From TrEMBL:
Protein name per UniProt: Cytoplasmic tRNA 2-thiolation protein 2
Subcellular location per the Swiss-Prot or TrEMBL entry: Cytoplasm
Organism: Parnassius mnemosyne
Chief place of localization: cytoplasm
Entry function: Plays a central role in 2-thiolation of mcm(5)S(2)U at tRNA wobble positions of tRNA(Lys), tRNA(Glu) and tRNA(Gln). May act by forming a heterodimer with NCS6/CTU1 that ligates sulfur from thiocarboxylated URM1 onto the uridine of tRNAs at wobble position.
Amino acid sequence: MICKKCKNSGSVTVRKEHMYCDNCFMLNINHKFRSCIGKNKILSSNDNVLVCLTGGKSSTVLLDLIFNGLSQDSHKKLRMVPFFLHITGLGEKENDITVAELIIKQCQSYNFNVYIVNICEYYFQRNNTLPSVNSVTDVHNWTELNSNTNLKSILGKMTSTSSNDIEMKIKHDIFIRAAKQLKCDFIFTAETTTTLAVNLLSNLAIGRGSQVQDDIGFFDNRDENIKILRPMKDITEEELHHYIRIKNLIEISVDTIRGNSLQSVIKTFVTDLQENFPATVSTVCKTADKIGSVDKNTNRCKFCKSNLPEKSDKITAIDATIFSRTVSNGQPPIANRNTGAEEQEDIKMSLFPFIDNYFCYCCSKNYLEAGLHDSNFFEISGSKNL
Ligand SMILES: [Zn+2]
Ligand SMILES: [Zn+2]
């Protein structure tokens, strides 16, 4: 039982085979974090970076890694100016307050400030102030102000799979807007190898396969000016667990994935996989890294800002669905070609509204589902000019 690096006695086993002492383990994690940022050569010296915090394991470790990096002496110093953001407002109120309080305490212990925004208020009302909240009393006052639960009730009526998807896209939008306000050209989010594997498989399952590169790679390039980076992508859930134990950090369980959804089933699958076949999860992510985006169209989806596919003569899954619909309607195609085409267009619109012109496949499906509960939802969410 000796450390594979320094040959002293080991204390941490990673992936059931590698033994480290606490010290070498921490050096290794710091190295993974720094080399992920370094080798991608995107950040330059003293860039403003917005760091998104959730209070969960990976967010807690990210905060600690940034603090460590900033406190190194000159040649090893992490050269960036961090701004911290926490998004709240979709959970049970008591729980939201507990999480916000923990994040404030975490930031205070490193002497950082944190901005906290309520998702409903900031997203719907286009409220452009970012409150910097630094005391527990502030949190209580500020949650009293935010009684707008419109978003929460709409998401509550939709299927869990769609709500999970929409929530993620809305948060993404808020990250970008907050970064613009705070003059940050970069955003750090805390996805680990494990979360990225879940996101990859979920993307494939819900029809966002063509967006895998932006959603899973080191950086998300959908915004022209602001890049979302994922510096924790080479760190696994298991490693977070050891890191938190060794440094005695306090975190809170913040699973935002709603149960009974494709995403929650996939998460259980990936967690089991990680447990029993530890090397498989990182292989899943490495495969994702190699998948380039095929859509080079400059038109973007109005909701998720992904590239829309270019017009093509090839038959797609959507054509197959429309064909099935025509067949199950029990009517033969109309002989007149023009009317036939119009009919096809009508069916397409009723099954996949605004697809390819305004929305990608998945957002079109979400639009249809949200419209059943609140026809203003997508209009409010930035797709006003349909
Ligand atoms: Zn060692
Ligand atoms: Zn979309």
